[in-house]
Amino acid sequence: TPSLVAFLQQELRAAGRALGPCPESPRAPLAREALRVQEQSEQLARELREVSGNRASLRGRLRDLRQYLHVLREGQRFTSLPAPPGSPPRPRASSEREPILDPSLHRHLDRKINFVAGVIHPWRVSAFERLLWRACRGYLVASFVEMPEPMEDPATGESVTWVIFLISYWGEQIGQKIRKISDCFHCHVYPYPESEASRVDTMSGLHSQIQDLSVVLEETEQYLAQVLDKVVVVLPTWRVQVQKMKAIYLVLNQCSFDVTEKCLIAEVWCPVRDLTQVQDALRQGSYTSGSSVECFVQRVPTSESPPTLIRTNKFTAGFQSIVDAYGVASYQEVNPAPYAIITFPFIFAIMFGDVGHGLLMFLFALWMVLYENSPSLRQASNEIWQTFFEGRYLILLMGAFSIYTGFIYNECFSKATVIFPSAWSVATMANHSSWSSDYLATHPLLTLDPNVTGVFRGPYPFGIDPIWSLATNHLNFLNSFKMKMSVVLGIVHMGFGVVLGAFNHVHFHQRHRLVLELLPELVFLLALFGYLVFLIFYKWVKFSAADSLVAPSILIHFIDMFLFTSNAGNLPLYRGQVPVQMVLVVLALASVPILLLGTPLYVWCRRGTGHPTVRGHTVGGRGSHHRGGLTAGVVPKPVATGDQEPLLEGQEDGNSVNATKEDVESGGHSRDAEHKDFAEVFMHQAIHTIEFCLGCVSNTASYLRLWALSLAHAR
């Protein structure tokens, strides 16, 4: 049946018919219904094959007759007889339509003239003509002319303007060579009557045959259209039914027989919330199939970690797929996807900040959201379009945040907008400096000094002052601003991710990891890069325009911090800065061995005192609760399936059948879990330590792409 459905779909595509969606969701057919569908599909496929074959043969025959008719018509022009006596002589002109032989020479020829006529593909004409000349040494006269109308190429199906050829020759051996060469070039050779009367009779016969075949072909096309109309009506439903049947038998094939080989056993993971639904579906399947044995569900205790199920809807699916692309969270871990709904579009907007560009993106996504139920949008076959459509809510938020950051940058299509009056006064500076006409003529660039009273009247109400778009040092100002902004946001983002790990440690009752892992991670991150954020804000607050020329460099201070030195040319930001920085570096370095050895030593000590241990969990996403190992005994009959509830949840509350309170709280992690080898725990922790320490450095530098791509987008 699947092959028949594929054949019917192929025939519809070949006929240019579009297969519409299934008007309703049919249930999976029973065995007798499946046999009926198979019989009907076989009958339709048989009719389609027969009618399509007849149509193809009729088309081929009609094409040959039309080509033959054109060959005779053009050959008649080549070999026309002389005019009757008394008629005015015809002027002799060099033309392809002139007779190839002068009729007055016929009586001087002792040998009989023979003809080979046919059609050839236009791409092969030049090579065909050259080979004829070389093989026959000029003992022939060949004429070529294009066919008046294009016809279909049976090999490729394309419309081709064929070339008609007429070859006159002397001698039977030359004729054999010409026919062999014509066969090699896949020419269609047709019989060419010798007398003109025979040619006229043949053409009249061809006319009548063409008319009869055209009528038969038209009736065949109408009958084929009727068969295709039947296929269009029934095929959408059949396709859904076949897909459901294949899905059901795919699941049944994964089941195993019991010892009596009379029923099937399936070991599955099932969400706690859906257990009742599964039991109802099995009971309904047993009743529908008419089985004398009712399906049942039995809980199987297991210490294995269940798979992760995170329920999503049309809004959260795109964000969850992005998170899953980096890694699917372990069972019951914190799911970072809800936070990524805000952080991902916002970080994109930092790089794409522009009111105009963001508005275009927002309107495009809003159009997709408003017409998301349109069949033309949902069923588009273009892969790039499907990517955009599936991420329409992601694009919507990216456009909205880009509009916000565009107002922050004060850019609309890369042009500054004057929403509020500028806080800088050129008139005050001009009055204070007494700029004369001669001074202005010799100084094309003028500097506004914020230390002069009245030149700078306070910060701009929202975003960047539009006067910076006219300044020559606009790029220097934005470079400093966006570079520091990227570092601050990046470190805050990383710190938030580290803090999320605390919820995992508390949820899995591994409070020792709060001290041995979370605390060293925070100390390492904040003592180095958190201190860098502190320096940025401290410098902004402490130094003003009056003493900006003596403000020290944060970058040099940060380098000296790791070298345990001080630079006399770079003034300290505050008193006692060098000792504070030395203490922070020592704390950061001391946190590395604690992070590396803390958890393995704790596990080793607990094992020595006889306490059970379980393997730790890393930051990820907390999936929906599952109750492990269910064994369902079912008879081999199709079973209805339930729909998934569109929710995004970190945890499913409440108990259900075959699930205890301990199951839900422990998440399938038994207190009697298998002890992990100390070397394996140490290796896992070593990899985590190296990854975290190197990641803090590389990710901080990587966040500078926010500055770089924001600058590139503005340029």
TrEMBL record:
Q: Which GO terms describe its biological process?
A: vacuolar acidification
MF terms from GO for this chain are: ATPase binding; proton-transporting ATPase activity, rotational mechanism
Q: Where is the composition biased (Basic and acidic residues)?
A: 660-671
Question: Among its keywords, does the record have Ion transport?
Answer: yes
Query: Positions of the region Disordered?
Result: 78-99, 635-671
Q: Which UniProt keywords apply?
A: Hydrogen ion transport, Ion transport, Membrane, Transmembrane, Transmembrane helix, Transport
Compartments, record wording: Membrane
Q: What is this protein called?
A: V-type proton ATPase subunit a
Per the UniProt record, the source organism is Nyctibius bracteatus
